[in-house]
Amino acid sequence: MATNNNRLTSNRAIHPGEILREELKERGIKQKDFAKAIGWQATHLNEFIKGKRNLNEDLAMRLESQLGIPFKTWMSLHSGYIYECKALEKNADYKMISNKLEPSKPVHPGEVLREELENRGISQKKFSEQIGIPYKNLNDILNCRKPITENTALLLEAALGIPAHILIGLQTDYNMQVIKQDPSFLERLANIRKMAAML
Asked: Does residue 151 lie in a domain region?
């Protein structure tokens, strides 16, 4: 399966269709021929590749059968895409500060994770048992009282298919935003910059 390091640092959600387009291009397969091979309408495949149609389990199975890329991989890519869309949507409220865009309100990854569990109809208690962490710890994360650690991010990735690096990235962004809203710390930074300018 084709990989691209730029995907890891993209500031937008990557639809699985984009990855399929790269895969077909790399293998020299025309979209029309591929649509016929998987028993799909060419127009529907084109919509999927352009990100206008979402992945479903039926298509994921067809892609696995034809390309050898596991069903679970496609579903994980889809979950990651949906999650990134929600995260970007939550961070869409921006204001201009010193020619840099900063979210007006820090968004804890627990908020997005809580919505994900609700959308999937998974109870917090059942999920905490599934991933093997105390219910209170999970509840604290979902209610923005505790950060998502690297270990927890990997557990969440295994259970939900949401890439761990996305969760850690959201947590880091949240931490940075909180720090930048602390007046005393901002004053400290300003003083350091003044002293640095005099050196």
From this structure: yes
Domain boundary among 88, 123, 140: 88
Q: What is the pLDDT of residue 2?
A: 46
Three-state DSSP class for residue 101 = strand
Chain centroid to Cα 123, Å, comes to 21
Cα angle vertex 139, ends 135, 145, to 5°? 135
CA–CA separation, 159 and 63 (whole Å) = 22
Burial of 31 (0-12, 13-18, 19+ CB in 10 A): middle
Say yes or no: 79 and 50 in one domain: yes
Range of the domain at 130: 108-162
Contact in structure between 163 and 80 (CB atoms under 8 Å): yes
Average pLDDT over residues 89-95: 54
Whether residue 79 contacts residue 21, with contact meaning beta carbons closer than 8 Å, is answered with: no
The per-residue pLDDT for range 121-156, each reduced to its tens digit, is 899 999 999 999 999 999 999 999 999 999 999 999
Sequence-ordered list of residues with C-beta below 8 angstroms from that of 130, at least 6 positions apart, any chain: 159
Give dist(CA 136, CA 134) in Å, integer: 5
- CATH code at position 127: 1.10.260.40
Residue 16 CB coordination number (10 Å): 24
Whether 171 is covered by a domain: the verdict is: no
Nearest to 17 by CA among 54, 42, 43: 54
